[in-house]
Write a structure and sequence with these properties.
The chain is mainly beta. The chain has one domain: Neuraminidase. The strands form 7 sheets. The protein has a 5-stranded antiparallel β-sheet with strand order 1-3-30-29-28, with no helix packed on it. Strands 2-27-26-25-24 form a 5-stranded antiparallel β-sheet, with no helix packed on it. β13 and β14 form a beta hairpin. It is globular. It starts with 5 loop residues before the first strand and ends with a strand.
């Protein structure tokens, strides 16, 4: 099949060497859209990516199916009208092969809503759910999606508009044709309800339980996103009941803007976040974030954790985590490039016991690169998504990583 996407060999990718960098490296790389935000793999080896394209003065969210070698098989997009914008957020694959993806939708006004869409493996449209009131009378962001044979789960948060700092995390579930089942708020343990929180990641256990990751304030918040908080984890039943809720002690998150990602496989619960600071952008005027990865039991106990890029002016902000078939964990995100005060995409791979198996830093001859998502590849390795641009997104990127 003719490959319409711009695929480049890994030889054109600038790599920052480290002691373990030879253990993982990209086998190929392609560009699509202005931004790629998520990736998922199907049991047959197919790849699904989601991202955004330009649409006049707005953006249009899309999902694309690729072969394991990066060939485009089909692509679908959605925009409700020419004055609206849609932005893709995350994607997953159901056991029957259907792809489920989610994103945010906004008219030209304050506030926004979100959507969940299902497509069959051949690209045929199944159904789309869109939040009522997304045209200017709702203010909600969706942050992640996971699917099983029985349900679809999304996380997100309600937010304020026009300077209102309100944040309130929630979890919502759907049946396999995107009809709503239930929603529940997730609250940090032992804190007043007016202390804000976010739900930013979801994964599922083998028994159908839901594992939620997010951020929770540790004091009341004024008109700023820079406030004391921590990583918060929740375990819910398939019906929404709370089994446990935990704050992660000793790793403060003073900014609610940093995402917390989560992946569950077997008895491993892996959580990644940017901690101790306010992000990776240069000239923040505040301390930047350190990268952080922790392994938890299914009961919520921390087994080990690792911090990286922690020596200022270095910084890192994880945005995605995945566990491969060998039990190793991949964590990706954005790190500072100290040499030119730019940003790179980073990928790191850890053993089940916390040993660093490999690390790589990617740049495609541009100063500002941002990492977004990761998915374990069937047969070994992983796929990583990102985009480049300083303030505005210019190009979306997908890398296939191999392990040597």
């Amino acid at each position: 099949m003719r490959r319409p996407l711009a695929v480049a060999l890994c030889s054109v990718i600038l790599m920052v060497p480290t002691a373990a960098s030879a253990a993982i490296h990209p086998a190929w790389h392609l560009k699509d859209g202005i931004r790629l935000t998520g990736v998922a793999t199907a049991p047959d080896g197919s790849i699904y990516i989601v991202g955004d394209r330009r649409s006049a003065i707005t953006a249009k969210a899309f999902v694309a199916k690729l072969s394991d070698t990066g060939d485009l098989l089909w692509q679908r997009s959605w925009l409700p009208n020419v004055d609206a914008s849609t932005n893709a957020v995350a994607v997953d694959v159901m056991p029957n092969g259907n792809v489920v993806w989610t994103g945010n939708v906004q008219q030209q006004c304050e506030g926004n809503g979100w959507f969940v869409q299902i497509n069959r493996p051949n690209g045929t449209f199944v159904r789309r759910y869109v939040t009522p009131g997304w045209r200017c009378s709702l203010a909600e962001n969706v942050t992640d999606i996971k699917a099983s044979a029985a349900r679809i789960v999304v996380t997100g948060y309600t937010h304020g508009c026009c300077g209102d700092p309100k944040q309130n995390g929630w979890v919502e579930t759907f049946d396999t044709t995107a009809h709503r089942l239930w929603r529940t708020n997730v609250e940090p343990p032992s804190t007043p309800k007016k202390w804000f929180d976010r739900a930013t990641g979801v994964s599922m256990g083998a028994l159908g339980n839901l594992y939620i990751a997010g951020w929770g304030a540790t004091k009341a918040i004024g008109e700023t996103t820079r406030s004391a908080g921590t990583v918060v984890l929740w375990k819910l039943t398939s019906g929404g009941g709370v089994l446990w809720e935990h704050r992660v002690a000793g790793v403060p998150m003073p900014s609610m803007d940093s995402p917390v990602s989560i992946a569950v496989r077997g008895d491993a619960v892996m959580v990644a976040a940017g901690v101790h600071g306010f992000g990776v952008r240069w000239h923040l005027g505040e301390a930047p974030t350190d990268g952080w990865l922790g392994r938890f039991t299914t009961g919520g106990s921390l087994e080990w954790s690792r911090t990286f890029e922690a020596d200022s002016p270095h910084a890192a902000e994880p945005t995605g985590v995945a566990i491969d078939a060998s039990g190793a964990t991949w964590v990706v995100g954005t790190r500072r490039t100290v040499q030119n005060k730019g940003l790179d995409v980073f990928a790191r791979r850890y053993s089940a016991g916390g040993g660093l198996l490999g690390t790589s830093s990617l740049n495609t001859a541009t100063r500002f690169m941002h990492g977004t998502g990761v998915a374990a590849r069937v047969g070994g390795g992983a796929f990583v998504t990102g985009w480049n641009g300083e303030e505005l997104a210019r190009h979306g990127h997908l890398w296939r990583f191999v392990v040597t």
